[in-house]
Amino acid sequence: MKKPFNEKSTLPEFPRDEVRAAIAKGIQQAEVQTNLCQTPVHIKRKNKLKPLLYVASAVAAFSIMVGSAAYVSPTFASTLSQLPIVGSVFNDYGFLGLKQASELGLTSSIGEKQTINGITVTIDEVLYDESNISVGFTIDSEKELSHRYFGTGFDLTINGKYYETNSSIYGKVLSPTVRIATFDVNDNMPDSFEMGLVLEGKGGEKWGFKVPVKKIKDIVYVPVSHQQQAEGIQLGVSKIILSPSGIALDYKATEKGTIDNSQVGASFIEFRITDQNGKEITSHSDGGEGHFDNGVWNFSSTKFFDPISKDVQKLTITPYLMLPSGGGGVQTKSSLKEVKFQPFTVEVPKQNK
């Protein structure tokens, strides 16, 4: 016999965060499945009216469900918690490539979290493409944390083995608790593996996660093999990579110098990319690496740009130097000068359309 309801009894605490998170991710998965049912694989612009209506209906239904009950049973809450969780960090971050990849269902929603000393770190979303592994994560703390509380960020392991690679962390302006960590992808990394992430705090905390990742498949490699020399700088662009998450441009540059001064012109190379209509593709400039050998500085890097639309037929690439403009770079700039590189064009392969 069921126990009668007693209005004066104390109800279990409603798991608001868990339920919201579970429903949000369930909706996201439904949207992805809806998109995957449509062809062709290289998706053109879709009419988003039906998916939006579906989401609105789902949210409305959930509101009615929650609003009509002051209590959710532990069994029901447990079932909801097994649904895919919360929306997309990438979708809200402001990088078009990450947003587009998330909307196309190319990212992996994780939702794994750990709390240590009142600080909760949650791995929300992961994207593994040809150039980067991007990890969206959030930080919730009972106390205010300094900007450098987590030092240099995550250490990365591949199938349990430490993997040394360049990494960086970006913070979201509108919400300092939201972060995106990126790791450079090297040629010898497997297409799928168990990724380990270890984050250490200044208070001695150590958050550890294990996340399965798989490289996206919708990638187009465009061999370039462009070489040019200007003002003593030898520049070579070997390839560009086109994917739903953006453009990646690989290059190498060399210049004679001395071992005690790496601030030569070749260390400041950047690129501007425009399409056949003169529209500039937004750059997300990143650093690179360099080494000195036999009187020559050797630099290499991958530069990242927003993805291009399906109607783009040709890209014009213009190298230039982004010289320091102030602060500690004033003295450096006085010994450098602008270098005029020649632009070159790249045809966009038909399979990208």
UniProtKB/TrEMBL annotation:
- Alphabetized UniProt keyword annotations: Membrane, Transmembrane, Transmembrane helix
- Transmembrane as UniProt keyword: yes
| Location of the DUF4179 domain | 51-141
Show the stretches that span the lipid bilayer: 52-72
Looking at the Swiss-Prot or TrEMBL record, what is one Pfam family this protein matches? DUF4179
Going by the entry's taxonomy, the superkingdom of the source organism is recorded as Bacteria
Domain named DUF5643: residues? 222-347
Protein name in UniProt = DUF4179 domain-containing protein
Recorded source organism is: Lysinibacillus xylanilyticus
